[in-house]
From TrEMBL:
<feature type="domain" description="Extradiol ring-cleavage dioxygenase class III enzyme subunit B">
    <location>
        <begin position="8"/>
        <end position="268"/>
    </location>
</feature>
<dbReference type="GO" id="GO:0016702">
    <property type="term" value="F:oxidoreductase activity, acting on single donors with incorporation of molecular oxygen, incorporation of two atoms of oxygen"/>
</dbReference>
<dbReference type="GO" id="GO:0008198">
    <property type="term" value="F:ferrous iron binding"/>
</dbReference>
<dbReference type="Pfam" id="PF02900">
    <property type="entry name" value="LigB"/>
</dbReference>
<protein>
    <submittedName>
        <fullName>Protocatechuate 3,4-dioxygenase</fullName>
    </submittedName>
</protein>
<dbReference type="InterPro" id="IPR004183">
    <property type="entry name" value="Xdiol_dOase_suB"/>
</dbReference>
Amino acid sequence: MAKLIGGLGTSHVPSIAAAIDKGLAGTDAWKPFFDGYVPAKEWIARAKPDIAVVIFNDHGNSFFLDRVPTFAVGCAEEYRPVDEGWGPRPIPPFEGAADFSWHLIDTLVDNRFDPMICQEIEVDHGLQVPMELFFGRPEAWPVRVVPIFVNVIQYPIPLPSRCYEMGRVLRQAIESWPGDERVVVIGTGGLSHQLQGSRAGFVNPEADRAFLKDIATDPDRLAAMSRERYVEMFGSEGAELMMWLVMRGAMDRDVVVRHTHYFVPASMTGAGMILMENAATAEAADPEAQAA
Ligand code: DHB
Ligand code: FE
């Protein structure tokens, strides 16, 4: 049985990667943002996961509007970072965990989720940026990755409750996997932002801060919310937040929040992160941790 060692949620704003590429991470404008990720990076370094399951949306780079799967799972040996138009980025390719990916796909189909199966696909900032935030800039990534793509762009997008249910199946796949890998699940996107239309530039820090609390303590409420409510509260692109529910659905009801951070705005976005462990296994590791 593989072990779920933690759940992470983070924004995946592309200008975060640009700030690292241009050496701006230590500047007055960016330092407070990056400082907020240090405890999570330290936790990762201690926890030493073997596999990162990353839930994100492609942004018209590998899928365009003419053909978009609602859910897709990568089962490749390697995922190259896609060039989004500014040239190749100085980051290594991502090694896949193809064996676990196939098991996840089997488990999803057994549970009436029928994802698109991607044996070859490139990954955009939705996966690149969270990996850089949590793993830094290594010569080679210290984990193998399993990308889960969720369509939050071309309507109709899936229900938040469906994302949450998918997380439960992901947990089942982790626990029924014969290997002993340590797995982290990373939900990405959000928080509030709208990049287009009459509400372009919209952010909602109050709703973002409430989300960062509720994702730990009241995920059922977030899963029960309609898609329209996500768009109203978080903006059209802020609806990406429903992908955090895949991560949360993979976790126990009771979690321990190790760290959370919020910074607004990063580019056009309320940028947030959370690091949680299941309370049942985390308490033993750290008796001082506070149950959510
Ligand atoms: C921005 C945020 C995103 O999540 C994204 O995918 C693209 C751009 C932004 O704030 O610039
Ligand atoms: Fe995005």
